Amino acid sequence: MEKLEKPASTIPKRTSNKSQPEFDYSTRKQKFRENCFRRVREDRTRLLWKLRISDCQSSDQKEIINSAFQDIVSDELKKIEDSSRNLLGNPTVTEDCDDILWEYEEGLKGVFEGDSEDILLEMQQIFYKDLLSDNGSDVQIETWEDEEDDYLAALVSQNMCLNSEQEQNQIWCPICKKGELMENHRHIYCNMCEMQLNKGEEVNLNILQERLAEAHAEHLERGCRLKPKFSVQSVYNLKALYITCEACNTFEVVV
User: Fold this and answer.
1) Are 180 and 168 in contact (CB under 8 A)?
2) Is the pLDDT of residue 43 over 60?
3) Per residue in 153-163, is it b (16+ CB within 10 Å) or e — as a string?
4) Within a 13 Å sphere around the CA of 22, how many CA atoms are in the beta-carbon half?
5) What are the residue boundaries of the structural domains of the chain, listed by start?
6) Pair 197, 209: CB distance under 8 Å
7) Is residue 248 classed as helix, strand or coil in its secondary structure?
8) How many other CB atoms are there within 10 angstroms of residue 4's CB atom?
């Protein structure tokens, strides 16, 4: 009796797809690094404010910086992974799509594991180098810090904590910066100056707190380092709190 030969396997072997032009690892790796470094510069000012308003020790501040940089690296890596999935389309369309996606994601994992430490170190160097170059010297850094408004920093901190369990019990007056904002059934007012706003369904102390934090954050994101001013004005018979800055031509209603 003749021995039957086993048919050749029809299961395709997993082959490398790194040669495919859409998976140019060298180009994507360089783009990945550039995006991480760009975001260090973009987020630097916000991170500095976060450090300045914190009461952390030096070691804790370094941990905050490292954590922020790791978040940037992870976020940029996720963007690349998402873009690869969009490029490949639906993995069930062809038999090779699953292999292609697997191969590419393994390559991305290698990029992250192999270069993440170097990238994080370079991000730290950029952070501190740009800080010194922007201010020219340590003396100018101190001058800039002296000109910073701790009141503004506190409000940005409040904005960061709005969704946390921390309660913000005090809201300082944006006009005199000495008194505390209070409220009754008719008005929001300062207990140290003449600042007063009418209270309504759309305006209360909590909403004012959120809007002040947002106004400061938006002004900061414009790249302006000068202190904005606040005032209560009546324009077209509408009494409102305004934020103004001559340096960047800001004139907007807060509430």
Assistant:
1) no
2) yes
3) bbbbbbbbeee
4) 13
5) 21-147, 150-253
6) no
7) coil
8) 6
d(CA 171, CA 155): 8
Question: What tokens appear for 120 in the block?
Answer: 């994080």
CA angle at residue 82 from 14 to 46, to 5 degrees?
140
Q: Give Cα 124 distance to the centre of its chain.
A: 16
More confident residue, 112 or 226: 226
Chain-centre distance for alpha carbon 83: 21
Spatial separation of the C-alpha atoms in residues 238 and 28, rounded to whole Å: 53
3-state secondary structure 137-184: CHHHHHHHHHHCCHHHHHHHHHHHCCCCCCCCCCCECCCCCCCEEEEC
pTM above 0.70, yes or no: no
> What pLDDT sits at residue 47?
76
Single-letter code of the amino acid located at 71: D
Quick one: pLDDT at residue 36?
Answer: 87
Ordered DSSP codes for 117-144: HHHHHHHHHHHHHHHHHHHSSHHHHHHH
Do the beta carbons of residue 151 and residue 171 sit within 8 Å? no
Is residue 151 within 8 A of residue 165, CB to CB? The reply is: no
Q: What is d(CA 195, CA 175) in angstroms, rounded to the nearest whole number?
A: 7
Q: Which residues pair with 80 in a beta bridge?
A: none
d(CA 204, CA 207): 5
Beta bridge partners of 182: 189
Read off the DSSP letter of residue 5: P
Terminal Cα-to-Cα distance of the chain (whole angstroms): 95
The percent of residues in the chain predicted with pLDDT above 70, rounded, is 57
Question: CA 17, CA 25: separation in Å to the nearest integer?
Answer: 11
